[in-house]
Amino acid sequence: MNFDKEFNARGLSCPLPIVKTKKALVDMTSGQVLKVISTDTGSVKDMAAFADQTGNTLLSTVEENGEFIFYMKKK
To answer: Edge-to-edge, what's the strand order for the sheet holding 5-9?
Structure first.
């Protein structure tokens, strides 16, 4: 999937992946896609809830080798 910015949240535990994802989205424009890579298992539910609460679109969630890769489109 194409993305405009990547954020590495490996090794961060709740709530840091969400807090830092929010900060990463600040300087992006509407319609751009952020790729987030996390190792926190709780981030799967957290990213979905964050998208619902903020109006951003969670395009994809994939697990690969113990890492969770999210693609989020900024509203």
So the answer is: 5-9, 33-38, 67-73, 57-64
How many residues in total does the chain contain? 75
Number of domains in the chain: 1
Query: Is 62 in contact with 69 (CB distance < 8 Å)?
Result: yes
Q: At a CB cut-off of 8 Å and minimum separation 6, what does 63 contact?
A: 69
Q: What is the pLDDT of residues 5-60, one digit of tens each?
A: 999 999 999 999 999 999 999 999 999 999 999 999 999 999 999 999 999 999 99
pTM given for the model: 0.95
Catalytic residues: 14
Domain enclosing residue 36, as ranges? 5-73
Q: From CA 13, how far away is CA 66, in angstroms rounded?
A: 14
